[in-house]
Amino acid sequence: MTAAPLLASLAPCTGSPPGPASLPFTWREAALRGLRGDCPRCSEAKLFRKWLKPVDHCLACRQDWSFERADDFPAYISIFVTGHVMAPLIIALIGEFGMSTWATLAVILPLAMIMMLGLLQPAKGAVLATMWWSGMGTFARERPIGHPDHLDLK
Ligand SMILES: [Zn+2]
Question: How close is the Cα of 135 to the center of ligand 1, in Å?
C-alpha cells in the first residue's frame, strides 16, 4: 500500500472557491446560522443533508463543508447542557416531590436521551460555524467588507 491515497485524503480541498455570499458580521451571527442548521457563511441553504452529516458543498455559496470535522465536541456540548438542565430537575423530583430513584430514572432517562439527541445537530452546526468563522483547518478566514478584520486580498 502506498501513502498516496492517505496523503490525498489529508490534502486540503482544492475544489472551486466559495462564491459571493452575505457573510455574517459577527461570530454570534455565524453561530446562530449554524444552530438553525443553515450555512454559516451565507444562511441561504441547509448545512446538513442528513441528521449529523453536513452537505459536501453549500448549494448557495459553494462553501466546502466536506473536509472539516467537528469530532466529539458537539456531543460534549450536548451532554454538558443536558446535564446542567437535568441536575436541578432530578434534585427537585427526589427532594421536593419525594419520587423514588426508579421513578425518577423512568422520567429522567427518556428526557435526557431526547434532549441530548435533539441538541446534537444544533451543537454541530454551531461548532462548524465557529470553525469556519475562526478560519480553522482548511477554512479561509473571511470577513464582510466594512468589518475591522476584513482583508482585501486583491
Ligand atoms: Zn452557503
Answer: 15
63: CA distance to ligand 1 center in Å?
6
16 falls within a domain: no
Phi, psi of 46 (to 5 degrees): -75, 145
Domain count, the chain: 1
CA–CA gap between residue 121 and residue 54 (Å, rounded): 10
Residue 2 lies in a domain: no
CA of 75 to the centre of ligand 1 (A): 24
Give the pLDDT confidence of 44-91 residue by residue, as tens digits.
Answer: 999 999 999 999 999 999 999 998 788 999 999 999 999 999 999 999
